[in-house]
Design the sequence.
């Protein structure tokens, strides 16, 4: 699929959505960040550097993505982006899926309001990933350049690699700098280290075993759900 066909698919989807809704909205995002996400979402080998620029890094593409890329529609209290497309082929489908997830995540957290309609001003700054996604997370948030292009997303969030995540594809974007947290842990009794290593202890005397442990009390729970965005890594999520 050529970019012209990709562009037409987006325009057709925009026209179709415009017929079913009365209002069109824009999500507040960094246009350069969105453009770089577009470039970096092409599968390996499909957007290589030719001379000084990558294949799909042209002024026409850039202008189109920057102008229309953050447009969303709200229908039946559900946010829909212009990137909700299918059957785009192996080159452009991953790009549409990545931009769709990104815009929805930003819209879902940063546009939340309180009961009086005032913005909650939630800005996500911690990305939690499993070990399998550590490299991808560092490419997005730590690397100076991504595929030869200045990484404008560098430093926008802190990476936390969590080995206890059971899924190799799930990731979470959290807002943790507010007094109220998305996850709360309450410690009731500080951990106390205990050992049973004396010769008079039954386990040592009878089995020659030395036992060690810790005793503590606490509980964990959810804070504000608005301060966390989670994905299982699938395009449908």
Sequence:
């Amino acid at each position: 699929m050529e970019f012209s066909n990709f562009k037409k698919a987006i325009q057709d989807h925009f026209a179709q959505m415009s017929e079913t809704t009365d209002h069109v909205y824009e999500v507040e995002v960094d246009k350069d960040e969105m453009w770089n996400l577009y470039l970096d979402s092409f599968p390996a080998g499909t957007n290589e550097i030719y001379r000084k620029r990558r294949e799909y890094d042209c002024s026409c593409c850039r202008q189109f993505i920057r102008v229309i890329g953050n447009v969303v529609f709200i229908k039946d209290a559900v946010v829909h982006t212009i990137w909700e497309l299918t059957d785009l082929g192996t080159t452009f489908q991953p790009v549409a899926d990545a931009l769709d997830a990104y815009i929805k995540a930003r819209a879902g957290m940063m546009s939340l309001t309180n009961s009086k309609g005032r913005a909650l001003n939630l800005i996500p700054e911690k990305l939690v990933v499993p070990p399998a996604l550590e490299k991808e997370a560092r490419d997005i948030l730590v690397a100076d350049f991504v595929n030869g292009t200045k990484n404008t997303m560098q430093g926008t969030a802190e990476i936390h690699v969590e080995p206890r995540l059971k899924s190799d594809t799930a990731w979470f974007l959290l807002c943790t700098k507010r007094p109220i947290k998305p996850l709360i842990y309450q410690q009731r009794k500080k951990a106390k280290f205990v050992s049973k290593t004396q010769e008079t202890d039954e386990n040592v005397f009878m089995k020659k075993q030395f036992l060690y442990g810790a005793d503590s009390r606490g509980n964990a729970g959810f804070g504000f759900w608005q301060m966390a965005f989670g994905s299982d890594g699938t395009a449908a999520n």
Notes: Residues 121-237 form one domain.
